[in-house]
Design goal:
This protein is an alpha+beta fold. It has 8 helices and 24 strands.
Amino acid sequence: MRGAPAVLAVLALALAFAPAEAPASGVRAGMDEKRPTPHAARGITDYDAPTALWREGPVRYLLTKDEDDAFRVLATDEDRAAFIHRFWASRDPVGSTPENEYRAIFYARVADANRRFTDWTKPGWKTDRGKIFILLGPPDDLEQQLVRDDFVPDSIVWTYRNPPGGERIDALPVVRFTKDATGEYRLSNDVFLHGFETATGIAFQIQAMQIKSLPEQKKLLDTIIGARALFDAGPFRTHRDFFRSGDGNTFAIFTLGVKTGLLGGASGSQAGSPAAGQGPPSARVAAQGDSGSGIGPATGRDRFEVVARLVGALPDLPSYDFAQPNGLRGGDHGPVLDPAGYLLFQGGLPVRPGTYTAYYGLIDHDSEQIHSFKEAVDIPDLRTPRFMLSRITLASRLERVEGRSAAYTTPFVLGNLRVLPRSDDAFHNGDEFAFYYQIYGPDTDPIDGRPDLDLEYRFFVAQNDGTGGLKFVPLGKPIRLTRQRNQVQGYTLPLKDWPPAIYRLRVQVTDNLSDQRSTEEVSFRVL
């Protein structure tokens, strides 16, 4: 589907999370009349039973042709169940919540359609009115024309004053149903009533029967996952940080680095600065192109857009989409370039611990090309309620940020630190060495609610142990910091006159209020 009408109901289901839908205004004939239905009520589980008939149920209004073709060739209930799980997960607007809000409201509308449209022999969801009601929701105005003559048959007109998906149009979009010879109301493409002869009104009626209600970025991710050949990961580098989340999940921050030689532009920028030739901050990436693929002219948005999806390796693990507001984005002041020449994008979500496959998609809006690759990801379980440190992460840039909370809300800002994760563990003599980490479970002062921590940083250098192996021996004196009050910590120092070798940093944190200690280590190289 092409153009604006194709997205009229893209967000109608995903954004309609109100517990009850407001009744339509106007004449109520046909909508509020509820009669006993001869069709037994069915639950979501019944509609989503993994049988070959699943595709013939209400989901046929959402299935794309590729999805339908893929489902039809499945031979076992196990394969069908896995397909159904992926189908709904790809449409889940908020992957971090236990409930799939999209699926819940879809089947709530199916049940509502069965209750409302009972004046025919088929279930309400199978009628034309049921289909439009499920896809677009209840109309804002409803009118039933009861006059019947040779020119004006019985008809019902639904008007949507706020077009589904927020589409801005000049005329009120309407959907009209006319009663056929059998007495069933069917979607009409004929124009009889004054005021509905506009191209927009007619197009809305025609397009309403073709809407798939699937956001474009989710379509793109489905395409990437279904592709047999994925782009070589060579031009890409990824970095992952994991932190304890208060909801029992692990907060996972994903950083994607893309070699600027692949993308073009962005050369000559300094690390941590907006990349040359880039537009406004990538948080503004959202516009849809005319092709329906999510790619279009780069006017009013960034050139590059990044989406990602985590797909659980086991059936009980959910999928998570990094898209739209939760997508991988550049910094507050534009795209960010690291010293190795990688353009950086970052995003974070709370994720259930387990093994996943991460799929990445990079959209170049200038060239209208999509690059993609995948990798295996293990999300650690950090729920142990004890005093401990997160993994130590090497950084290419680290600076203090005032007035920030500990929550992750902005790419490259963690607590009170602005951080550019390093794409590898290799440094050169004269580079600035930087690292950061988080402290979990310290006791807090009963007066000000803050911890009291002592930090010790000790470096070691690798030497030959005489048997062909390596041993690490202390290098200089340890660095000690006392009475630290923040749970997110970082440190920088210049690597001046450090000879080429393999080094190790040991971080030990002491909780002065509980007298507990925790230690972590990280290795790095100086070339």
